[in-house]
Amino acid sequence: MKRNEINRMKLEFDATSQNEAFARMAVSVFAASLDPTLEEISDLRVVVSEAVTNAVVHAYKNRGGKIGITAILYSDRSMKLKIHDKGCGIADPERCLEPLYTTDPTGERGGMGFPIMQAMSHAFRLKTAVGVGTTVYIEFRFQGA
Amino acid sequence: MKETVKTELQGRTLTVTIIGEIDHHSARKLREEIDSALFYHRPKTLRLLLSQVSFMDSSGLGLILGRLTRMKELGGDMVLVSPTKEIDKILTLAAIDKTIPTERSVRKEDTE
Ligand SMILES: Nc1ncnc2c1ncn2[C@@H]1O[C@H](COP(=O)(O)OP(=O)(O)OP(=O)(O)O)[C@@H](O)[C@H]1O
Ligand SMILES: [Mg+2]
Fold first, then answer.
1. What is the pTM of this model?
2. What is the pLDDT of residue B2?
């Protein structure tokens, strides 16, 4: 099925923990015109929160930086998301995608962020380079309404 | 949004109710409040009531697993109570409900 772009937005914001809630709210409000179900909105919020939190915590080590989000809505009720940082990058991306893998030393992280992002979206791709940054590409296809 | 924690001790069971969103931003304060109640009361069982949590991501899983570690240090155990549908989905995805007993039916005394 041919799909046309119907709306697009770009956000750039500081990598602070306060902005995690801002980012997931902003993206879910932007997606509302595709009429997702409550469950789909909930999944979208979780996925955005995971990617943004990883940028705040891992990419920038809680020392701040910039996070960018691009979101595109399509006529077939799908949505593309790109969430990127210019932080430390990931040396071993394959390993990082594994459930329960975390580099967090505090014992307060379970290594479930990437598995959750993959389970709750329809397509997921990770692009990363050490010293350059990390981008996650995520796609949703809303069924509901 | 203001996250809050309510605690109630009954015998050696401490029920902790989390109200609001659990993400990386709110987790630190929630953790500090729950841990200070744990070290003050030293309960045998921690019941974490999740029915009033409006959002949770993997930082919430970390918060839960971290409290399980504390309870083990205290020689006690932990139960998750009444997760919302959204939170239950994440608990199941992470197979937390296999590690920590999860009560899915709402108990009357918890909702009062
Ligand atoms: N944007 C990023 N920049 C640098 N490293 C990252 C980034 N995102 C993830 N990582 C690395 O990948 C690992 C796995 O990420 P994932 O989100 O799955 O788990 P976590 O963040 O450690 O724990 P959780 O998400 O369950 O709280 C992280 O521990 C970190 O080492
Ligand atoms: Mg994470």
1. 0.95
2. 75
